[in-house]
Write a structure and sequence with these properties.
Layout lengths: L3 E5 L4 H10 L5 E6 L2 H13 L3 E6 L5 H15 L2 E6 L3 E2 L9 H23 L3 E10 L12 H20 L6 E7 L20 H13 L4 E4 L1 H12 L2 H8 L14 E2 L1
Parallel strand pairs: 1-2, 1-4, 2-3, 4-6, 6-7, 7-8
Antiparallel strand pairs: 5-9
Helix pairs in contact: 1-6, 3-4, 4-5
């Protein structure tokens, strides 16, 4: 049987598209997320392609729950070949708004701590030569106005995944940090500003799978955003600040909504 794949945030967006990208006859895919109905919708599409879909509802910040799920899954289906820490949420936050403090903590917990919780839970059950991928963002390259929590969480994810790559180097496990630009998902649908080089989610997922399977340590997509991202990371503050201070920020949370990647 083909190696098992585990994906967090698999109920929609990039997570669902990655599940479909890996859905092949004989493969088992574990779909993890907070919304059971959304996971069931993904499972139907995965099974239609001949793969076996297992699903569990879980918050990636709940390390104990992830530990139990990982142990149970490995017992029933064997070692994990591909682990993708994709779960993420996005909202605008402003330090001047006291109400945003809770939102800030939630974003960092999900987008950064949740990645570590996921990797830590499944690490004992990874197959030799397994692949780990974490979905970061080009928003982690520089701080963006009105997106302090999101930028900080994705920058942290990039640094964490790099540390993990070095930690697991001698075990033969490859770790890929993936930094997408704009991908057409429910998360980006809430953006009220121009999104250059917006990629269809299935096309983005196909490119991500190639990078993961080939063991690439770093993947930015699309290529235009990779070029722009490189420039942004080296742009002097004297130039960066006047330009990006005028950029529109992310929408702040107004209710109990949560846009997922």
């Amino acid at each position: 049987m083909m190696g098992a794949v585990v994906i967090t945030g698999a109920g929609s967006g990039i997570g669902r598209a990655l599940a479909l990208a890996y859905a092949e006859p004989g493969r088992v895919i574990l779909l993890l997320g907070r919304r059971r109905t959304a996971l069931q919708e993904t499972a139907v599409q995965v099974r239609a392609r001949g793969a076996r879909a297992e699903l569990r509802t879980v918050d990636v910040c709940d390390g104990a729950a992830l530990d139990r799920i990982a142990a149970d899954f490995a017992r029933d289906f064997g070692p994990v070949a591909v682990l993708i820490a994709n779960a993420g949420i996005s909202h605008g936050t402003l330090t001047a708004e006291p109400a945003d403090r809770t939102v800030f903590a939630e974003i960092v917990a999900t987008n950064l701590i949740g990645v570590e919780m996921t990797c830590g839970a499944f690490l004992p059950y990874l197959a030799p030569q397994a692949r780990i991928a974490g979905i970061a963002s080009v928003a982690g390259f520089r701080g963006l106005p009105g997106a302090a929590a999101y930028s900080a969480s994705k920058a942290g994810a990039i640094a964490y995944l790099e540390s993990l790559r070095l930690e697991l180097r001698d075990r033969g496990i490859r770790v890929c940090s993936i930094a997408p630009g704009y991908v057409a998902t429910p998360m980006t649908a809430e953006n009220h500003y121009p999104m250059p080089w917006l990629m269809p989610v299935d096309q983005a997922a196909a490119k991500m799978r190639r990078a993961i399977d080939r063991g690439r340590p770093w993947c930015v997509l699309p290529w235009q955003m990779a070029v722009l991202g490189t420039l942004l990371r080296h742009l002097p503050i004297a130039i960066y600040d006047p330009i990006f201070a005028r950029v529109a920020g992310k929408r702040r949370r107004t209710g109990d909504d949560a846009a997922e990647s």
